[in-house]
Structure formats: C-alpha cells, structure tokens
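Thread: Newbie trying to understand structure tokens

Hi all, I'm a second-year student working on a class project, and my supervisor (Dr. K.) asked me to get a predicted structure for one chain before our next meeting. I've only ever worked with sequences, so writing a 3D structure as a token string is new to me. If someone could post the tokens and maybe explain what I'm looking at, I'd be very grateful. Here's the chain:
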Amino acid sequence: MTSEQLIYMDESGINNNETATYAWCKKGKRYHDTRPGKRRYRLSIIGTLSNGKFFDPMVYQGYCTAKVIETWLEKCLLPQVKVGQVIIMDNAPFQNSKKIR
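---
Reply by user tm_fold:
Sure, no problem. This is what the structure looks like when written as tokens:
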C-alpha cells in the first residue's frame, strides 16, 4: 500500500478543569492547592492524517461517543474516501460499534 491509500484517524480531548494532584516542594514542606469539585466541560477533536496532511478536523464540546464518530464519518470523512483507501483507527471502545466497523 502507498501512503496515499492510508488514512489514519484519531481523536483527543482536554478538560478545562485539569489540576495538578502532585507537585515538588522543598523538603519538609507540603503542597496545597484548591481543586474544583465539579466538572466543567471537555473540548474534543477528531481528525485524519494521510500522506503527511491533516484533514477533516472536527472540534466539539463533549466526550467522544460512537454516535459522534458515526456522524463525523458519514458527514465529513466517507464522502472524500476514494476506492482503495483504508481508514486506520485505534481500538477505542466507542469505535467498536457494528455501524462503524
């Protein structure tokens, strides 16, 4: 297979309330900090890499689910996939739905 035939797909996300649970201090001192008690929101991104180029990015607020992946595949990626191209995904649980396979 050539690099033009391979499409690598992945997703990632960050929370807006990430806090450090550990820190370095001088010997004998203790680290203290506040930690939010509730979740705020998560910002996620899905995209593909093929032949050294990043394309079809989708940024959204929330967690990645099978429904999000299905919608993104149907609306963004699959209309552009050519015959002979292969989509390579990781083994995330939400990508194991029968519809995605």
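A couple of things are worth pointing out once you decode it. The beta strands are 6-15, 42-50, 53-61, 86-88. The two ends are 21 Å apart (CA to CA). Feel free to ask follow-ups in this thread.
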